[in-house]
Amino acid sequence: MGSQIGVTGLAVMGQNLARNIARHGFPVAVHNRSESRTKQLIEHHGDEGDFTPAYSLEEFVAALDRPRRIIIMVKAGAPVDAVIKDLLPLLDAGDIIIDGGNSHYEDTRRRVAELAEHDIHFVGAGISGGEEGALHGPSIMPGGPREAYDPVEPVLTAIAAQVDGTPCCAYIGPDGAGHYVKMAHNGIEYADMQLIAEAYDLLTHAAGLSAPEIARVFEQWNEGDLESFLIEITAKVLAHTDDTTGEPLVDVILDEAEQKGTGRWTAQSALELGVPVTAITEAVFARALSARKDERTKASKILPGPPAGQAGGDFVDAVRDALYASKVVAYAQGFEQIRAASNEYGWDVQPGTLATIWRGGCIIRARFLNRIKDAYDRDPELSNLLLDDYFRDAVAGAQDAWRKVVRTAIELGVPTPAFSSALAYYDGFRRERGPASLIQGLRDLFGAHTYRRTDREGVFHTLWSEDGREVSAD
Ligand SMILES: NC(=O)C1=CN([C@@H]2O[C@H](COP(=O)(O)OP(=O)(O)OC[C@H]3O[C@@H](n4cnc5c(N)ncnc54)[C@H](OP(=O)(O)O)[C@@H]3O)[C@@H](O)[C@H]2O)C=CC1
Ligand SMILES: O=C(CO)[C@H](O)[C@H](O)COP(=O)(O)O
Fold first, then answer.
1. Region of residue 218 (phi > 0: left; psi between -120 and 50: alpha; otherwise: beta)
2. pLDDT digits 0-9 by tens, 207-231
């Protein structure tokens, strides 16, 4: 008997995923382009399970039971294509390749189609949880042909995080559905982190708290509705002291946020689908602005702002409420985007399934996900989370604090693009009639783009440069 599954690509994620698989009793073949990673894995962890090390792809493929099940865990982009190209001549019809990296969903759609021509099944599986999650239980979002998922399901569900006895792994849909959903998960992760960063900024510059004090605030918040992995680790990062300077580590980390691309892809896809995901997009832009350190340093000496000040009253609690309300909006937008993509590509992604498998293992895991799951249990067709009774009441209860926080941020010159845009989205969403009528009027004047009316059917144009008469443009 050979190995039930193979993992090629043994950097942090692949190595820990292979160990997780082996620890669950599945014999696993392991391979990496450079031999050193394979050797290191066997040397340090070979006793954790039934590993078969392979030092060439030929050896790797030969070690696998049929149909062969191969997880690729390499850098996203061209490396995935390179590995597939090398594997292809060694595989037989019915074999299954699972790409567990952060691949772009359009690449996954292409790979599913290309490999189907060779009768090879391709599963694009988003995996979240970072290094620790990969080892102890990630959240797994597999997409692709259903018949390709079924043979790998026992391994994937066994190694996934478990919440209330339910694995944080479920089939998402055909084609690129799994990688789309992972991308959107990361987009939500960007929004969540940006909101947390804005809360930290406000507590520093409007409430005058130090990093260790803010760490304690986040610890308290983690005991309420905001309880989540990101809030928990925010407290840890803020409480950490730098060995060299004795200062809070966060005060000596360079304030330039990097990004590998999944947040940007989410925003790009949202623009193409026409879904207003303002919180995620603002988070991507905020990282871009943060990266312009030299320009910001120059501007800080030239551009005036309001004098520094201190917010009064129960500001810390107000920031907590504003954070929660903004977070509801960010998740509502992310789920709306996934629904739009699912409709566009015919994937039939179930939002309730996502809320279930994101409750554990992944970076955005949170108590809050149970609330989202409940909302979709109540109404699987819910078009926007804000329309669910629980979330409607939660946001309504927080809105005075939310408005106060955004007002204070503006008055003191503390930038809160995600808090503010989430509030603007909320206010825009709850308006039956907005100012877009004027935009339509302007478009009609300068470009004869036409408009529709509120009082009768049809398409109209006003003869702006003639006698101002309205004519039918049907
Ligand atoms: N790190 C994280 O927290 C998370 C990462 N991911 C995703 O998982 C995937 C793996 O991530 P991670 O473990 O961080 O590793 P990296 O993204 O850093 O990729 C390194 C791995 O890719 C291999 N590789 C690179 N180019 C090639 C190539 N042309 N041919 C064959 N192998 C190649 C490397 O082999 P070699 O050793 O020979 O250089 C190494 O095994 C990525 O898609 C990443 O985005 C997903 C969730 C979380
Ligand atoms: O997929 C992940 C977690 O779910 C990765 O940690 C992701 O790469 C983080 O993205 P970025 O580096 O752009 O912040």
1. alpha
2. 999 999 999 999 999 999 999 999 9
Span from the CA of 74 to the centroid of ligand 2 (angstroms):
14
Return mean pLDDT, the chain: 97
Q: Give the residue, by CA position, lying nearest to ligand 2 atom 14.
A: 259
* Maximal CA-CA distance, the chain: 87
**In the numeric block, which tokens belong to residue 218?**
């986040």
CA dist 73 and 9 (Å) reads 5
DSSP-derived letter for residue 240 is P
As beta bridge partners, residue 472 has 460
* Model ipTM over 0.95: yes
Instruction: Please identify, by atom number, the ligand 1 atom nearest to the C-alpha of residue 12.
Output: 13
285 Cα–ligand 1 center, Å: 26
Q: Say whether pLDDT at 62 is over 90.
A: yes
Say how far apart CA 451 and CA 456 lie, in whole Å: 12
Element (H, E) at 7: strand 5-8
Determine the distance from the C-alpha atom of residue 140 to the mean position of all C-alpha atoms in its chain, rounded to a whole number: 13
Cα separation values, 416 from 288, 316, 393, 410, 428, Å? 15, 15, 24, 8, 18
Q: Residue 157: CB within 6 Å of ligand 2?
A: no
Which pLDDT value is given to residue 313?
84
Distance in Å, CA 344 to ligand 2 centroid = 25
Residue nearest to ligand 2 atom 4, measured at CA: 128
CA distance 358 to 381: 19
* Stated pTM of the model: 0.96
Task: Write out the H or E segment, with its range, that includes residue 52.
Answer: strand 51-53
Find the catalytic residue in 58, 182, 272, 344.
182
Measured between its terminal Cα atoms, the distance across the chain in Å is 71
Which pLDDT belongs to residue 191? 98
Average pLDDT on 3-26 reads 98
Q: What is the mean pLDDT of the segment spanning 150-165?
A: 97
Minimal-distance CA residue to ligand 1 atom 18: 75
* Whether residue 189 lies in the annotated active site: yes
The string of pLDDT tens digits covering residues 298-350 is: 999 999 999 988 998 899 999 999 999 999 999 999 999 999 999 999 999 99
Residue 301 known to be catalytic: no
CB 145 within 8 A of CB 121: yes
466 token code pair: 């003639």
Mean predicted confidence (pLDDT) in 108-124: 97
